[in-house]
Specification:
With 257 residues, the chain is of the alpha/beta class. The protein has seven helices and nine strands; from the N terminus they run E-H-E-H-E-H-E-H-E-H-E-E-H-E-H-E. The protein has a seven-stranded parallel beta sheet with strand order 3-2-1-4-5-6-9, with helices on both faces. Strands 7-8 form a two-stranded parallel sheet. The chain binds NADP nicotinamide-adenine-dinucleotide phosphate (NAP). The site of NADP nicotinamide-adenine-dinucleotide phosphate (NAP) has 29 residues, from helix 1, helix 4 and strand 5.
Length: 257
Amino acid sequence: MTDTISLPAWAQHGTDLSGKTVLVVGGAGGVGEGVTRALLAGGATVVATARTQAKLDDLAARVDDPKLVVRPLDVMGAGLEEVVDDLVGDHGLLDGVVIAIADWGDQGRKGLLDHTDDEWEALVAANQTSVFRAYRALVPAVAPSGMIAQLNGFSSDIPFPGAGGVAASAAATKSMTRTIAEEVGGRGPRVYEVILGMIRTRPRQLAGIDDPAWIPSADVGFHVAELVAGSGRLAGTVLHYFVDRDSGPRPTAPTRP
Ligand SMILES: NC(=O)c1ccc[n+]([C@@H]2O[C@H](COP(=O)([O-])OP(=O)(O)OC[C@H]3O[C@@H](n4cnc5c(N)ncnc54)[C@H](OP(=O)(O)O)[C@@H]3O)[C@@H](O)[C@H]2O)c1
């Protein structure tokens, strides 16, 4: 496993995020770490969050970059608004926010109709209410010239047998993002939904699950960097699909993943 990252062929050269501050919620997660590294490579100050200090300490030691700030944050926590207020107090209104959160739950793979009420409610809380609470707290913390993006999976569009609860929340949060984008509609930050295919992440690689054809997590970050800069060819489009490593992000869904 390597921590070196390189600009993919489809990406613009020279995206400069110097002077910008981007919050990556879930920045110590698999995709979040790649996004964090790519934003740092672009010159941004990155505030990466996790729910435990131990994960933040591990991330800070691995990334070892003076522009990385780590911060505990649980979007389901009672003190969310206070944490966001403190963040804005320290950094000013943010130039970008990335919501990179996911929770597969404890129920394992099972048919949708086999979920208990408790399993269903836990999945909705962890994957849907969490994103709602993140948007509600964080949209006001972004500068009007800035952006907020939710990273999501292609299960938001296609059937996902065995993981129907996660897929249902993915579809719901895709809908949520598109609605917020219209409600904010030019009077606030740009709002993006980035739907991802299979990503190569550190936790997956540590678990021995990897495929060179999958998208490196940092490539997601290079796309996000262009959105923060407002310079990418998709900067004016809400919905993006990034499911093919070589062709990069697209504004339309692929015919198959
Ligand atoms: N990996 C893929 O192949 C893939 C494919 C398509 C889409 N995605 C999308 O990428 C995003 C991240 O997925 P991942 O693969 O990186 O998952 P991951 O490695 O399991 O990371 C999930 C992250 O979510 C954070 N999180 C969960 N609940 C939270 C809460 N209540 N408050 C704050 N943070 C919370 C976790 O924080 P802690 O660090 O505190 O645990 C963790 O950093 C998701 O939106 C997912 O849909 C991933």
